[in-house]
Write a structure and sequence with these properties.
Strand order of the largest sheet: 7-13-12-10-8-9-11
Largest sheet: 7 strands, antiparallel
Distance between the termini: 41 Å
Helix content: 10-25%
Radius of gyration: 19 Å
Number of strands: 13
Number of domains: 2
Structural class: alpha+beta
Shape: globular
Length: 256
């Protein structure tokens, strides 16, 4: 019987895909494909299939089969719309980060971080189903809960986001290698920070369409998937861990 894997892509697009490829093979195929051309980084999660009736599991079984030349079926799209909200959290397994040249890093579930000594503000990149860049006074666990609570004008049925590195405004080089993220409009950034730290706003949108310039260099503590029923967290490896255990991926992601 053919082995079928199910993947929920979260960035740069949200979709649900059946495949005969293992995660690292799937990541390489989706990022690079079989021919030279457009390369793009991506984030996806492995999913245990067979739940509910939102997705056509029988269609997946019948069509996720080898080609006539016995090469595996790379991808069979089961949905490209409102995927995240339809997948139970308990069915989500691991998270994968794929660089633009097709190298994939696997992240496993970890306890959600909460800091006894909180920062003045936090920076979040929403990944799915929306993707603005947001400054917030909420800690990582609080931010997701706020976004799906349903008691504000702006609420979501589910959200995937990541915590980003926060710049040291007095000594930007101390922040580390985060590329040109903060170079565009430092005045606007400072005003948005003041909205949270001085004027008391809980969240402030910094950019509506930052996802096109998102890189793994700027990821801070990790990634979250949250819906009204609960939340999942995936730690981002420290630079030292990447150096010793995942050097090729870290180098490809321009972290090392």
């Amino acid at each position: 019987m053919n082995q079928i894997y199910y993947y929920m892509t979260l960035f740069p697009t949200e979709s649900f895909i059946a495949s005969m490829l293992q995660p690292d093979q799937f990541g390489a195929y989706m990022a690079v494909g079989h021919k030279t051309g457009g390369h793009e980084q991506m984030i996806f999660a492995s999913v245990e299939g067979g739940f509910g009736d939102d997705f056509d599991w029988e269609y997946a079984k019948q069509n996720t089969v080898p080609h006539d030349d016995d090469t595996p079926k790379n991808s069979l799209y089961l949905s490209t719309y409102r995927v995240l909200e339809r997948i139970p959290l308990e069915r989500i397994k691991n998270l994968y980060l794929t660089t633009s040249d097709g190298r994939t890093l696997e992240l496993t579930k970890a306890p959600f971080p909460h800091y006894d000594d909180p920062k003045p503000y936090y920076l979040y990149q929403d990944l799915a189903p929306i993707n603005p860049l947001v400054i917030s006074s909420f800690q990582p666990d609080e931010y997701g809960q706020y976004m799906v609570a349903g008691d504000t004008k702006i609420t979501l049925p589910a959200i995937c986001y990541c915590d980003l590195k926060v710049i040291d405004a007095d000594n930007p080089t101390k922040t580390g290698n985060i590329g040109p993220m903060y170079n565009r409009n430092i005045g606007h950034l400072n005003e948005c920070i003041k909205s949270v730290t001085v004027r008391g706003k809980k969240t402030k949108m910094l950019e509506r369409t930052f996802a096109g310039r998102f890189t793994f260099q700027i990821v801070g503590a990790g990634f979250a998937i949250v819906n009204p029923e609960g939340h999942i967290w995936f730690d981002m490896p420290k630079r030292e861990d990447l150096l010793h255990e995942h050097y090729d991926w870290g180098y490809s992601a321009m972290i090392l």
